[in-house]
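Please, structure for the following, as tokens.
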Amino acid sequence: QVQLQESGPGLVKSSQTLSLTCTVSGDSITTTNSYWSWIRQPPGKAPEWIGASHYAGNYYYNPSLQSRTSISRDTSKNQFSLQLSAVTPEDTAVYYCRWRGVWGQGTQVTVLS
């Protein structure tokens, strides 16, 4: 059974870089033709797609976040990561990772002003 688990700091100060890691268990993330994705849901708002990385090395980002977003992978650890720079309180949200249709449980990130 594939499971995903997000990890990272729950509190980040404004202007800092948010770093989250998604650890996958139950299968290898090197499975062909798959995407590693990040999504977030701010309080009281709809989910927002942040970006995705394809196993072939392509990257896709939400245009509104592209300049601040980086997604990377560590296949040796079966993990993929998100970095969001220059955060503001508007980046406060529950952050989710997703792979092959499976979602992590989400992790709350609060940006302090």
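The CA atoms of residues 4 and 104 lie 4 Å apart. DSSP finds no helices and eleven strands in the chain.
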